[in-house]
Amino acid sequence: MGLHPLEFSDCYLDSPWFRERVRAHEAELERTNKFIKELLKDGKNLIAATKNLSAAQRKFAHSLRDFKFEFIGDAETDDERYIDASLHEFSNFLKTLEEQREILALSVTETLIKPLERFRKEQLGAVKEEKKKFDKETEKNYSLLEKHLNLSAKKKELQLQEADNQVEQNRKHFYELSLEYVCKLQEIQERKKFECVEPVLSFFQGLFTFYHQGYELAKDFNHYKMALQINIQNTRNRFEGTRSEVEELMNKIRRNPQEHKRANHFTMEGYLYVQEKRPAPFGSSWVKHYCTYRKESKKFTMIPFEHRSGGKVGDEEIFLLTYCTKRNTDTTDRRFCFDLEASDRPGVPVTMQAFSEEDRRLWMEALDGKEAVSAQLDKIGFTVIKKCISAVETRGINDQGLYRVVGVSSKVQRLLSLLMDAKTCNEVDLENSVDWEVKTITSAMKQYLRSLPEPLMTYELHGEFIIPAKSGSPESRVNAVHFLVHKLPEKNKEMLEILVKHLANVSKHAKRNLMTVANLGVVFGPTLMRPQEETVAAIMDLKFQNIVVEILIENHEKIFRTLPDATFPEPIPVSASPPNAPPRQSRRQGQRIKRPLAVYNLCLELDDADSHSSPREDTPTGSMDSLSSQSPTLAFSSSPPGLLDGNHLIMDSGDPAVWTSSLPGQSRPSMVSWMNTPLANSGTTNTAPSAFFFPGPTTGSDRITESVTHRKARAVYPCEAEHSSELSFQIGAIFEDVQFSREPGWLEGTLNGKRGLIPQNYVQFL
After folding, report:
1. What is the pLDDT of residues 19-62, one digit of tens each?
2. What's the rounded Cα separation, in Å, for the pair 755 and 735?
3. pLDDT at 397
4. Distance between CA atoms of residues 441 and 403, nearest Å
5. Helices 379-395 and 409-419: crossing angle, nearest 10°?
6. What CA–CA distance (Å, rounded) separates 404 from 522?
7. N or C terminus: fewer CB in 10 A for the chain?
8. Contact, 478 vs 556, CB < 8 A?
9. Does 226 map to a domain?
10. CATH number of the domain enclosing 478
11. Which of 261, 366, 282, 378 is nearest to 324 (CA)?
12. Could you tell me where the Basic and acidic residues compositional bias lies (predicted)?
């Protein structure tokens, strides 16, 4: 039972039960006062903690905003730029969130702390003052009454009457005060119910508003997050592909460092110990210097450098070399020495010591100066290329994986030797002979182009071709490549025109041969363009070589049939802002963005009695569409697992080939892991490709078992159906009886007894 009501009539009786009820009301108000006091303390602590959290979040946001990733090379890919800008986006997100948190902290003070403090001070404080008056008047009333009752009856009547009047007046005042106090007690008991709860309700309303605003921020941020996940996955895939190339280069340099020295403007560079003569009797000392030499200007530079002192660099010394002579051991007690004489100090040789005899030999050769002679394209080369192109276009223009499937090394070399011999070249019939497979002809053609002393697009213009591929609008890239092609030597340009025209023809049959412009760029980028030296920076530029070849193929009519502008077009920088891809487009729209096809690119391994090695493909599998026109791209990363059994390639289902797509027109990330299990049912109605190809060196059998089966798949991203024929699902949903649909980029499957279409890049096969 709750508190007993205080009756006003009881104030006149002032019974023990009345007093007990008053004390119960007073105790309840005291408990309420303590509760509000504790609540105010906790509320202030909450505000302080919120401010501390906000300060920490802001500091974290500043740290994100102030950091910038450095990249290797002289340009970044779009994905790398978006990843770099992501830290700033994260910082802005936290900043916006903390602004809302500050509003919450202010609202806690205004809506919770101040109203409770006001109630405690004005209402509960007033009751305390009334209680003091009531207790004081009670003491006074009963003291006066006892004193009055002790008066002697023998007092004069006038004195007794005055005493009676005084007691009566004091009693009336006490009753009035008692009535007011009782009224106040009951008023506060009722008032506290809304005066306390209403501020708490306002506090929670502010809290819910903050969380709702956070939810809205997260929802707005979700689109950017999904696009960033695609950028991260693309960058990870490129890293995996680049890492193997870097490790291979590292191993090459480890095996033979001298053959892989960097080519630069120095004829020779490296560490030498230089003899510094001192006045007698101190003799001389040998100081390590980093030395460089330019043969053209005969300029020799020495920079003192000591590794053991933390990399301290001394003053640079430059002189013009007059001559260099070798020092024999009979003239010095040190090995590997030679003398240099400077033009400004004739007759005063400087003695140098190399690290070894081989090192001294290299320095001596460099200081003497020799130049290499480059070979040129000749008549027989044009004949070889024209014969191969004619045969490919006649016999194999629709072969799947054309130029990606490699021939047997021994057959390729035998064909090349026949074609490059003037006596036998005309006797080789590639168009009608069954002795030469199409893959052998295409491999011979690529091998010939790779074996030229200088790549077709020359070392000199290599860097200039790369520059427009790294930045600028599609139009500016085409104009720049157009201009540079016409700077090539005439024979190089003529050969390039013949080849590119052929590749454009190949790309027109991409629906049959699966060799899109982008795939051809992946194959011929390293063949037509090659840096003069193998470095990590050069490996990073492989992707841009592919883009240049794509531009050539897509615009060959303009590039080779028209003259370029007289001036070199300046590239327009690409915006570094993160992608803002629109939502997934409906498969029923007339101009929808292409969805990726599941194309396995397997390099077939072929048997040969003479040799079990085949030419190595230069690059990993490329995208389904051209990078140069900013169209959707695929980046494949795969390893061709499997065992050779007779003439068939038996795939191991335990090692998946993973492909990802980077579609500018698609907001959801597309990442599907495909198991390389041989497919068994070739009688299905889907139109997915029945043959798939992987990159990489191949040997052995030239056939694979090809078919299609129905399989299970798991959703890796959620999807909301846009049509009754499509399925809606959440992450982790398991689809039964999955097969390719007639609609490119879609699958058919069953979920919870309903069959419908599934976006192919939203699931992972089990």
Report:
1. 898 999 889 889 999 999 999 999 899 889 988 998 998 899 88
2. 9
3. 92
4. 9
5. 130
6. 9
7. N
8. no
9. no
10. 1.10.555.10
11. 366
12. 609-619
Residue 77 predicted with pLDDT over 90: no
Spatial CB neighbours of 234, under 8 Å, sequence gap ≥ 6:
79, 635, 660, 662
Rounding to the nearest 10 degrees, give the CA dihedral for residues 623, 628, 629, 631: 20
Whether pLDDT at 74 is above 80: no
Tokens at residue 392, please? 């490919």
Rounded Cα gap, residues 419 and 437, in angstroms: 15
Rounded Cα–Cα distance for residues 552 and 561 (Å): 12
pLDDT in tens, 438-460: 999 999 899 889 888 889 999 99
Looking at every residue in the chain, the average pLDDT score rounds to 76
Domain membership flag for residue 639: no
Q: Which residues contact 75 (CB under 8 A, 6 or more apart)?
A: 470, 471, 544
CATH classification at residue 305: 2.30.29.30
357 with 438, same domain? Answer: no
667 within some domain? no
One-letter amino acid of 727:
L
Q: In sequence order, which residues have a C-beta less than 8 Å from that of residue 623 and are 6 or more positions away?
A: 516, 518, 519, 522, 632, 633, 634, 635, 636, 661
**451 & 503 share domain:** yes
Both 385 and 362 in one domain: the answer is no
State whether 359 and 471 are in the same domain.
no
Enter the pTM of the model.
Answer: 0.38
How many separate domains does the chain show?
Answer: 4
Per-residue pLDDT tens for 458-504? Answer: 999 998 999 988 877 888 889 999 999 999 999 999 999 999 999 99
Answer yes or no: is pLDDT of 417 > 80: no
By the 10 Å C-beta count (0-12 exposed, 13-18 middle, 19+ buried), 636 is classed as buried
Whether cis (ω within 30° of 0) applies to the bond prior to 582 is no
Residues 320 and 272 grouped into a single domain: yes
Query: Residues 276-314, buried b or exposed e (16+ Cβ, 10 A)?
Result: eeeeeeeeeeeebbbbbbbbeebebbbebeeeeeeeeee
Per-residue pLDDT band at 282 (split at 50, 70, 90): low
Q: Which two tokens stand for residue 657?
A: 């080939």
The answer to whether the beta carbons of residues 507 and 556 sit under 8 Å apart is no
Backbone angles phi, psi at 350, to 5 degrees: -110, 125
350 and 453: one domain? no
Residues 553 and 469 in one domain: yes
Q: Is 736 helix (H, G, I), strand (E, B) or coil?
A: strand
- Computed on alpha carbons and rounded to an integer, the radius of gyration of the chain in Å comes to 44
Tokens coding 324: 């260099």
